[in-house]
Structures are given as C-alpha cells and as structure tokens.
What does this fold into?
Amino acid sequence: MNRCKLLLSAVVLLVTFPIFPQSGGTANAAKNNRQANRSGQQASHPSEGERVFQQNCSRCHNAPQGFPPQISATIARHMRVRASLSKKDEQALLRFLNP
Amino acid sequence: MRYQIKFKSTVRRSTLSLWILALSATFYMPCSFAQSVPLISGGVGFFTDTNGGNTTYYPAISPVLAAPVGPKFLLESRAFLDESFFPKPNSGYTSSSFVGLTYLQLDYLAASHVTVVGGYFLTPFGTYNERLSPIWISNFQSAPLITSLGTMGTESSLGGMLRGSAVSTPKFSIDYAAYFSARSSAEQFQAQRSAGGRMDIYFPQQRLELGTSYGRLLQGTHKNFEGLHVWWEPADTWFRLRSEYAHGPHSQGYWIEADYRLAHWGGPETLIGRIEPVFRMQQTFRNSPDSTDGLPSVDTQRADFGLDYRLPHEVRINTSYSRQFSGSGNRNVWETGIVYRFLFPVWKGKQ
It folds into this structure.
C-alpha cells in the first residue's frame, strides 16, 4: 500500500513537471517587457523599479522566469507586505514588472 | 527537521477546507484593476533525507494564495501538504500525511509606510522564518537549528501586526514589524501568547543589512528572546552571506550561510553558471535544560555542504551533506530534493 502511494506520488510529480511550465508560459509578454526594460536600462542606469526589485525581492529569491501581466499588480502588492515596501516603492516595482 | 519543523502532527483536513474556502472566496472579490487578478504561487517537490542511515522520502507541495481585495486589502495564505515515507523499526516502510496552514492573513495597506496585518501570520523574528522558509527559496532542506528560538515554537502567531518601511532613502532604509499574538490551541492555528518585533536597517550601496529582533513569551513562565542578523551581498558578484544569532533563557545559537553561483563562467544561464555551491555553519549552546525551546539538549555543531543546480523552467535541484557533532553522538545527514516553483493567475482576467 505504501509503495503504491510512493509510486503514485512519483507519477504525479513526473506528470506535473511538464505541465506547469506551460501554465507559466503565458507570461511571455511580461517577461519580454522586463528583459527589454533591463537591457535598455543597463546601458544607462537601473530604473527605480529595478532598484527596488534588486534591493528587496531578489535578495531572497530569483525573479520568476515569466508571468502573465494580469497578476503583476498582485505580485507588487504581495511584495509590498512581504518586503515592507512603501507605496512609492510598490508603484516603482509595478512599473518595472509591467512597463 | 524539515522546512516546516512544526509539522509533526496528523492530517488536518479542516485546514485544507479553509484554504479551499479562501481560494473560492477570491472569485467573488472585487479587483481594483486589470493587473490585480489573484494568483497562486508556490513550490512542489520531492525530497529525500538520510539521517543516521535511515532514509525518508517525502513529496510535498506548498501553495501560496495572494488575492487583492479592493485598493487597500490583500488576502494571502500559504499551506503545506506532504506525505512522508519512512522506515519501520523492523523492516519495510510506513507513511504519514500532513496538511497544514503556514499562514492565513488579511493585510490592510493603511498608509504608505504602515501595513496592518490580522490573522494567522509568520512570527517576525530573525530572517529565516519569514524570508527563507519556503521550499522554493531555501538553499537547504533542513531549517537552521535555532529556528524555534524567538518564534515561540509554532513559527506562526495569531493576532495583529504592524509592519512597513519607516524610512526609505537612496542611502539607507529602515523596516519594522511589531506584533501581538493570542494563545491558540486550535489545530489549524496553533500559537503562543506573545509579543515582539523586528527592526532592520539596509544600506543599498554597501548591500549590507543589520537587524535585531525581540520576542517575549507571555504565558506560563515568561521568557525573553533576542536576535541579531546580518546579510551582505557584495555588489556585482553572485556571492551572498547571511547570518543570524538568537538567544533564549536556556540556550543560544547562530548560523552563517554563504552561497556563490558560478555565473562568472559564461553567465547565470550556462551549464556551469547554474551551479550554486552553498555552505552553512551552525552552533547551539545549552545553558540549562529546557525541553520546550526546540534546540538540541546538548551543545551541537553542524556543518552543511550543499550543491544546488538551477535548471530552466523554475526547477531547482538541491543536494547537501551535513556532519553534526554533539555530546549525544556524531552523525551524517544527506539530503536531496527537486523543487519546481509555479506561479499563475487564479483566472484569466483581462489582458
């Protein structure tokens, strides 16, 4: 019985790994926007939003490789609470995530 | 000890129901604008832990829900579900399940620098509990030995919290969090009556953060806990140094963790650049016996050597070897795991 559970868990895991990247694949617009924003900024200096991202979000975790633009404000608000951002920093982060 | 060291009880089916209820409620919440669609994030993984020759296998999933409610509120929650397969005393394997809430809170963005939090939230003491405990973030599977000091053994609190950024300038910023928790023995919301908080200052040019934490247990024998943390990420490198110290009435300890992603060899997305060696040193010291503070009963030293590999598509492989020295015996701990981080909207929403 336990071996069956273990086998079942492994199968579920193997099946879900190929599925999840597809669900995240709708994020190409936001991802491309961020990449374009970054490459544009690197030539001069980082934007306020990128500064907020680097100083708060990326100190604990890597940036998501992509996400749909319709959740960018939710992410920014979530990070405002988690990383104790001010309202100004939240807005700058939102512009960076979804320029 | 796993990511969530408080997860040692039986299945909490009602917790799962609560989480599903919160998820269902998001369908009826008003969104302030098109980019505020509720999201589900989190991690799913498969882990092994070989401790003293016994190997435990546990697939786990830890979903996060974040749902804006109007322009000023945010409902957020994290849960943890796993199935552990561990050896029986004689032969063969047996298993146990767990479903539990890590936090379920409503945040009110009261002002630019003040957020009011109500509900069941992660206790703001030190850095590990709030920042590094998610399975898709932590470099090591096992939590630091001192995690329970200052977090009152439950790691979560039930009550209210004020938090925010007190000052934010280009040269430095100061963050704060202050909370009060009631005692709760409800299975889904276990908490101790306590109060405390954390304050830290960050210097962005030096990329240096210094912080201090305080917690006071307000039930039974009152106890004080103090903590310090230092984080440093030198600019233009892939090196990170994190450390934390915690002191309680009967014990104290620290951990120092350093990691370096080999991104200088062709960039972070190359075969070599995805490799991340990690090292953590920990020590705990026991002043007097206390079976409730969660630290080892004797002085303990532990060195963790990890090698993580960041695959494409948000998948990460974690491996580590640890050698633990203590008066009760030395032992080896081997851990491996593969974690996928997911992130998607609850519904499609408007583009």
About this structure: Confidence is low (pLDDT under 50) at residues 10-44 of chain A. Chain A touches chain B at residues 2-3, 5-6, 9-10, 12-13, 16-17, 20-21, 23-24, 26, 51, 55, 59-62, 64-65, 67-75, 77-78, 80-82, 84-89, 94, 98 (CB under 8 Å). The CA atoms of residues 49 and 88 of chain A lie 10 Å apart.
